[in-house]
Each structure stands twice: as C-alpha cells, then as structure tokens.
Amino acid sequence: MLTEEDRRLLHVLSQDCRLTPEELSIQTGLTPDYINKKIKQWESDKVIVRYSTLINYDQLEEDRVTALIDLKVMPQRGQGYDKIAQRFQKFPEIKSVYLMSGDFDLCLIVEGKNMHDIAQFVSDKLSPLDLIETTSTRFILRRYKQDGVEFHGEEERPQRLVITP
C-alpha cells in the first residue's frame, strides 16, 4: 500500500526522472535518504521498470510511423490471452501489447520506417498466425499529446485566412 508521500514521489519522478534526490526532496518534502531508499526498493521490486526519454520525432528528419493494430484472437484452452500476449512481446516491431475490452481482444502499438514496413509486418508475421481471426490497422498521422506532454501548442497553429465577399 502506498502512502500519500510515496504517491507524491512517484508522481514527481514520472514527470521528470532526471531530478536528483535533493531536488526531489525540495518538491516532495521527503529526505534525500528516504528518496534514495524508496527508489532502490521500487527498482528492485519492479515498480520502476525503466527510465525513458520522450522524443518528438516530428522535429527531426526521421522516418517513423506508428500504428495501432487491433486483433481478434482465438485463445487456446487453458492458456488464455496471457500466453498470446507473451508471444507478441517477442516481436521487436511491437512496442506495446494491451488486453482490451470491446470488439477486439488485443491492441498492439507497432513502429516502422513507413506504412509499407508496417503493412509487411502485418501480412508476413501477424496474419499467418492461426490464433488471429481478424486485424484492424490504424496509422497515427500526428501526435498532439503523449504521456501528458503537448507536442503542438497554440503558437504553432497555422492562421486561417478570413474570406470576405
């Protein structure tokens, strides 16, 4: 069970994991020693599983396409969705795997250099699998916000010209 102090510490860490224990102490009111111990414990317990950087690839001349692929699958008796999800986790193209409610069972987030790469991944690696009944692929055309970070603010919107008769 998390204390309110621990929730506050995790929240601040999730906003900026580069902060030092001293900086975290100022923001949370906790001691740097407590913060160091908690972080080590959370890393050991796999509560904190990774520190990462969020990159705005739109600012770079880097080809990158992300797709959401919804799957309807046929789980095998006694194994359920977990075994299928573990199988998908092995593909390097798949960045995330989610069990979903609704019309589809799983949602995959897949990255490639272009739409053709993703289409080829679906046709060559996913579609031949017997356990997949249906796929639906949607491409992300533009990211406006991810992980709480806005990518395109008010100042970047193109001004619409007023048309007068």
Task: Write a structural description.
- There is one protein chain.
- With 165 residues, this protein is an alpha+beta fold.
- It has two domains: 4-44, Arc Repressor Mutant, subunit A; 57-141, Lrp/AsnC effector binding domain/regulation of amino acid metabolism (RAM) domain (Alpha-Beta Plaits), CATH 3.30.70.920.
- The chain contains five helices and six strands.
- A four-stranded antiparallel sheet has the order 2-3-1-4. Strands 5-6 form a two-stranded antiparallel sheet.
- Strand 5 (145-146) and strand 6 (149-150) form a beta hairpin.
- The longest helix is centred in the N-terminal third of the chain and has 13 residues, at 32-44.
- It is extended, with a radius of gyration of 21 Å.
- The mean pLDDT is 89.
| Number of DSSP E strands | 6
What is the CATH architecture assignment of the largest domain? 2-Layer Sandwich
- Would you list the SSEs in sequence order as H and E? HHHEHEEHEEE
Tally of separate domains: 2
- Helicity level: 25-40%
Basic shape: extended
Mean pLDDT: 89
Identify the CATH class of the largest domain.
Answer: Alpha Beta
Radius of gyration, rounded? 21 Å
End-to-end separation = 66 Å
| The CATH topology of the largest domain | Alpha-Beta Plaits
Enumerate the strands of the largest sheet in spatial order, edge to edge or round the barrel. 2-3-1-4
- Low-pLDDT segments, ≥5 res: none
Largest sheet: 4 strands, antiparallel
CATH superfamily of the largest domain: Lrp/AsnC effector binding domain/regulation of amino acid metabolism (RAM) domain
Which percent band covers the strand fraction?
Answer: 15-25%
Instruction: Please work out how many helical segments DSSP would assign.
Output: 5
Class derived from helix and strand content:
alpha+beta
